[in-house]
Amino acid sequence: MDPDAIQELFAVFGAVQVRRMFGGAGLYAEGVMFGLVSGGQIFLKADAANAQDFAREGCAAFEYGTKTGKRAIMSYRRLPDRLYDDPDELAQWVRKSLSVAHKSAAAKSKARRKNARKKC
Hints:
Oligomer: single chain
CATH superfamily: YgaC/TfoX-N like chaperone
Number of strands: 6
CATH topology: Yope Regulator, Chain: A
């Protein structure tokens, strides 16, 4: 999926930045990564707050192969196919994933501050 197609798809949601990475792309809004594109598919950030929405739709987690040959599973779930044709509902799903991404970024920042205090 090219950046212009992504911008068009997410137009109802609002501004989305697309940053190339590892043969795919990261999707950013408000300074945090809320989604990714890999193999022509979009994946959105998920946690306990919205994982059941993805599970009801039968959407698998994003996986990739590591250098050691193991499979790594990330906290991103495949976007339901039906949302590609429903921009209003897509925007709702993206808002939930953006909220999850903000919580995750805040938790990481808090952990970094805590670890920095331990080193002093």
